[in-house]
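Anyone opening a protein record will find just a pair of labelled lines. A complete record is shown below as an example:
=====
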Amino acid sequence: MILKALDIIRSGIVAATFFFGYRIGFANGYDPMAQLHFMVPLIVTAIAGVSGLEGLLFAKKSAEIKGFETGSNYQFIFFFSGVNHAADAIKRKNYAWQNINRPFITLLVIAGMIYPVVMALKLI
């Protein structure tokens, strides 16, 4: 139950960050730097921080829910996490919720960050 709550909290923080980040970015014209200054720390904290707490406090139960062997290190870099979950679902037919949704969520987060990053790079 706590792990499901952490997953919902993580997703909720990322969704709210995108909503408010784009509002901040488009508040007065378009300021991609302001948008990224708001979004990047919150997204990193939500994804890495909440995942880190999950791994530290509930490693065994979290591994069981995801269909991984217990006692193994299953924390990954964000992009590779999506790839790993997709590969696990395909190769081992491990259709745990995270293995199905994580690749799509990863692609959505990356897609949502492309525009502000490209626009910020144009300012440099």
